[in-house]
Amino acid sequence: MEHDFEDIEVKENAVDLLEYALKHKRKKCMINTGSMTDPYIPLEMEIGNVRKVLQIIYEYGFGFAVITKSARILRDIDLLQKINARTKCFVQMTLTTYDEDLCKKIEPNVSATSERFEVLKRLRDAGIPTIVWLSPILPFINDTEDNICGILDMCMEAKVYGIICYGMGLTLREGSREYFYGQLDRLFPGLKEKYIQAYGNQYMLESPDSNRLMKLFYQKCRQGGIVHDNEQILQYLHTYEEKESAQQLSFWN
Asked: Quick check: bond before 136 cis, omega within 30?
C-alpha cells in the first residue's frame, strides 16, 4: 500500500455496481462481506453504504452474511430481519476476550465485548441467527480457561448458532509480526522476548495450553448445543435458502 493502513478508500460506485450485478444474476446466492475489513467503520454512519446495500439485497431476494465487531450493526436490524424473513441472514461477530480491560488494550477501536454480547442478544430476540469467530487467541495473554469459558457462556446465553475456531493461537506474517511485537512492547513489557524465545519467526503461534483449551471448547459447545464444526458452519453460511413464505409471495406476484 502507498498509504497508512488506517486510511480508508471508499469505492464510491460500489452500491451501483452491486445492484447491476444482482439485477443480471440468474441464480440467487448469499452475499458476504466483512472478511477483509469491518463494514461498520465509523464513516459508515455518515455515508450509509451498507444500509443501501442491504436494501438492494432485500429487494432482489438475495441472502446476506456479515462479519463485524461493531454494535453499529443494530442500526440496520430492521433490514436484517426483512432479509431473514425472505431468505437467510447471518450475523457473525468476533469475540476475543471476556475481560473488558484486556479488550480495551488489544481491541481499542471497536465495540467492547460487553457491547458485542448485547448485539448478539438483540439479534437473538429479533430471530436473526448468529455465529461467533473465536479468534485470535494470544499466547500468554488471553489463552486461559477463564477467558474461553467466559466467552462460551456468553455464546450459550445468546443462543448463537455456531462458533468458528481454528485453534488456540494466532498467525503472524512478515510485516504484521513487527507491528505485533511493537504493540507487545507497548502494552505488555517483556512479553516480546517470551514470544521470540517460544516461537522465533514461526507463522503459526499455538498456545502452550492449546490441547486442553480445545478439549474444553468442544466440551462446552456440545453441552450448549452450539455447532462447532468449521466446515459445517461455512457450508451453511454459503448455502442460499428461500423460505416458503417468500416462495408463495413470488408465486402470487
From this structure: yes
Q: Report d(CA 149, CA 151) in Å as an integer.
A: 5
Q: In the chain, which ranges are continuous DSSP H helix?
A: 14-23, 44-47, 49-59, 77-86, 100-106, 113-125, 145-157, 176-187, 191-199, 210-224, 230-238, 244-252
CB–CB of 8/42 below 8 Å?
no
Q: Distance between CA 106 and CA 184 in Å, rounded?
A: 10
- The mean pLDDT values, 10 residues at a time, for the chain of 253 residues are 72 94 95 90 94 97 96 98 97 96 93 97 98 97 97 97 97 91 95 96 96 98 96 94 64 46
Q: Report which of 139, 98, 127, 107 is spatially closest to residue 38, judged by C-alpha positions.
A: 107
Which three cell numbers mark 13?
Answer: 460506485
Q: Which class for 150: exposed (0-12), middle (13-18), buried (19 or more C-beta within 10 A)?
A: middle
Residues in the chain: 253
Amino acid 243: pLDDT? 82
Which CA distances in Å does 3 have to 11, 38, 47, 182, 217? 16, 18, 22, 20, 40
How far, CA to CA in Å, does 180 sit from each of 39, 44, 112, 120? 23, 27, 20, 29
Cell output for 25: 444474476
DSSP state of 72: G
DSSP β-ladder status, 169-171 and 204-206: antiparallel
Looking up cell 488506517, which residue turns up? 6
Using CA atoms, how far residue 171 sits from 123, 138, 206, 238, in Å, is: 30, 10, 8, 25
The reported pLDDT for the residue numbered 246 is 55
